[in-house]
User: Fold these one by one.
Assistant:
Number 1:
Amino acid sequence: MATNVTLQFKVHEIHNVGQPVPHNVFNEFDQHGLLLNLERLHGEGNFDYRQRLVDVNVRKANSTYFGLVYGITRELGLDLFTAIKIQALKTNSVFKATNPVVVFRGPFVDLYSDYNTGIIDRTIDRWEYTSAYTLAELVTEINKSSYFEAVLGDTINPYTRSMTILNSSSRASFSESLPLSTQIHLKHKDILSGSMEFSSRIVFITEQTTLNNVKNDGDYYINYKDGIIHAFQTPQPGIRVTYDRIINPFTAVASPVIIQDIHSNFRDKLFIQNKDEFGTAFDGKPTILGTEIINELYSVYPEYWGE
């Protein structure tokens, strides 16, 4: 006959001897990291590490402005983020300004009402403590323009410094082949007027101001708003067109790592400039100032950002 025996005991106190410490087991991702010279961060999981490894060949690190930003941001395990979104205002689907372009250059933000003629509606200084030092203040300053409006990116801390936004522009260049047709629909709309160039001047000789004036060989008309070219003749095979487009809305990308032009000659101040046999300058070793800046940037801890 089987007998069931029940044992009971009480634990009056539990002593915690220590906290578990995460430890990564070397795997294939770490092998790729050795090849790409990108070590795994302490406690970094495979998914996040993989994202950084892929980014090595997407946003390449070098001694240029973007190369430093991309490289240091990735090395520190930080991420680029959407800081603000800027919309060029329209009335009845037509821009209120002639050629509205936003340009982030160093500490300044230029809001062009006509980019082609260099007419600037507003220039905003992001180093100015009393106006546009934070992202929220920058949005307020942009919204004072008659031609643009801005909003913060999703889940963005409004008190983040506005200098985190990278040098960038809402003007972008494109190139494409033309079809064998007299009515050509480009891949993009909102073309920057005056920016279009053709690889052949046989069909595209005289740009007309209205569609009704396209009457002779070489005449053509461009609808910049809708991205449509009307030509009198059919283009020959292989003709290409290049043009600049106004990106609207424009997304301003930022990095927690701030590197900006030091007055002028940014690269000259950060790196010793050497010359090759043809007299072309290239970056050498970091200068004393460059070393100090790079060391200061490497002292940033990932835990600080986002708090």
Number 2:
Amino acid sequence: MESAHKDLTDRKDFIAMDLATLSKQPDALAAFRSMVQITGLTDQQVSDQLGIDPAQWSRILKGNAHFPINKLCRLFDVCKSEAFLQYLLYARGYEPKLVKRKSRLERELEAAIKRAEIAEMKAAVLTEAIGGRINGQK
């Protein structure tokens, strides 16, 4: 069976920022800009996808305006990276490795697989016990 959780850095479309790069970021703004830069997208493309005026986006990247926090998850999607989130974890003393929690469907599937494995094990034990009695063994 696969790992219990999905390491987000294993996603094929995910652009990871390694620990060496994370640790070199002098502050959150630098980490924010680095995450945007590693995408290869232009500032215009990012601002368009976020629905932020390009001039406002420019001010955000310069640290002269605040990023609308309610767009942070969308930014991660646009950048295909959670590098800024990793930076925040690292800066606060946590391991920056992100592990995605299982969905309800994944948890239900695991439980069903476990029940099936237990049922198979019981069936094998019963089959062996019955087979032994039929062959004259006790």
Number 3:
Amino acid sequence: MPNHCAMKFFLSVLLLTGLAAAAQKASFREIRLRPLPRFENTSDSTIVYPIVVMKNPAVGKRINARIREEIIGELPTKASLRKDLAGMVRNGLTDLSYEATFNRSGILSITISQEEGNGPPVSRYFYLNFDLRTGKDLTVSDLIEDNKLDSFRTMVSSDKTDSIKRHLNREKDDLARKEIDSVTYHWVVDEVTANCMDSASIVNFSLTKDHIEIMDPCELPWAIRSQEPEYGLLYTYTRLRGWMKPAFKGRLY
């Protein structure tokens, strides 16, 4: 009888712990600013900076420090966040936005996009993933079993290479139809072959309700930016069921 009671107690604690983790999510406050008219003439607040709010202030502080580090950088001054953002606006920041693509079960995945208009437009994307129980970054190695990590990287690299090869075939067809000139075609081929083929980084990723997307774009020089390969490296949690660490199976799906 005592053992039966102990088992019921253990199951009750496990259930409550699971429910608490499932309910744990982040909320947001925002700082909204407008760009300077000389960079972008708009009356809209196109600069929206996210501030994560957690029940545990220490966790929120750690997450917000990481977001600030990515967007603003590690500054030697102790200026306020608003002053730092105002400085970025003066330097040409025109757009800043965010999207929480996964925000439940104690996990937050957030994508932040940033654009500058001081000179040729510059776009940046940041992909941040956090364990909301601790505020620490989540990496692919936190999610994928250690003995499956190399094979996962190989799979991503193969998928990326196949996508790029298909893109180069389309570029070749465009050349045959004279939709692009030979100089542009060979420039694209040289850049893509030298910098994007047969390798992949799995450092940057985004989580959604049903898949993980590896963010490893093939970026080209500004003059041929329109010819960049477009592809998605998406892997459903169902497909990765045998690859993922048990601790995250129940939290992601």
